[in-house]
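Exercise: predict the structure of this protein bound to EPZ.
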Amino acid sequence: MDKLIITGGSQLSGELRISGAKNAALPVLAATLLSEEPVSIGNIPHLHDITTTMQLLGQMGIRLTIDEKMNIEVDSSSITKYEAPYDLVKTMRASILVLGPLLARFGEAHVSFPGGCAIGTRPVDIHIDSLIKMGADIRVEAGYIHAKASRLKGCKLVLDKVTVTGTENLLMAAVLAEGVTIIENAAKEPEVSDLALFLNAMGAKISGIDTDILTIEGVLKLDAKNIHYNIIPDRIEAGTYLVAAAITKGRVLLKDVRPDLLDAVIDKLREAGADISTGDDWIELNMHGKKPKAVNVRTAPYPAFPTDMQAQFTAMNSVAEGVGIITETVFENRFMHVQEMQRMGADIQLESNTAICKGINQLTGAPVMATDLRASASLVLAGLVAKGETLVDRIYHIDRGYDHIEEKLSQLGASIRRISG
Ligand code: EPZ
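Solution:
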């Protein structure tokens, strides 16, 4: 298994281009199952989860062509089976996103039940219960979700919890349903809106985009009419590199980003003392050589502070001036990175879903283990400012969600290298 070795001490400085958003690319690629014509998607990030999604669609008999610019053309007309097998779903829970489109377009889906992961049990009860309300016949047997529906029927759905992939699955199910579907308490994450805009570009009739009430008027078919759709930039990748510059007292200019999708993160970085300026598609952060000040953070659904930036801010607080309190309200077990940071000398006290971080002068490099995507990124950030070498193991987690992380950090002056084996 590959590992990353980071030697701390460099003050990062430079500029980066941000890749397309993983969590928009995954539902948009699933949504191509709904189109009767081939469709082309651009600004796809070069990530392991994208490869897995292409394998998932490919093993259904779907034709995919990808060019050197990471544009993917998908033609679902050659589909031969409606299944998401265990060996793929176990590596990527987001495979559940084929359930809604398969059911809507083909009336049948067999999806391996996604297990939990390091950050929580990750149930999909809201996905399943809502599809049943839309008329699907669903049974869970031998670890698989078996779903059938002659034609889904639109209805009013009030979701018990704000769920990103739950909202996305139901959006995709509703676009071909008979009649109107209303989804209340819908997730408003930008990636949900990107999916809705893509579906409308293919002829769907969705209104209320960017709000928590989505209204979908079912149509008989979607037709991509040779559209080419570009995925939005990855706001979490962008936020991660902003924290990399802040934690090392440096500066960074990010291009191909959407600052308007990062308001909560930018506000917190300004509170930490960062000097930030923004344009339509760029963000510049400069610490002017100063240590960040500790900040209090409470995660919640968009537009509040994103849970996917919590671990990165925990790392920053561990070397900031003062005490910062981090409260995680979305997932029940998303502090796995804390014990690894404590091994690097961090003074963090866990009390149920809260981490109380007392900034220390310097962390000490150590061998640490990644447990989930964002926790592993936060350990790399900690390694950037630790004394000596930090060895981050199990970095397959990182490769799922960060496109060429060591190249991008090296470009900013970090001392980081990958070792295989
Ligand atoms: C999406 O996961 C993202 N993944 C996650 O990003 C992100 O952390 C999360 O949304 C929250 O923003 C993708 O988009 C592929 P949820 P998702 O359903 O949809 C509960 C990353 O780092 N819930 O919004 O699985 C659930 O337990 C990943 O890129 C139910 O109870 O998250 C959680 O407490 C990690 N029943 C809360 O809702 C359900 O049926 C929010 O989960 C569904 C969810």
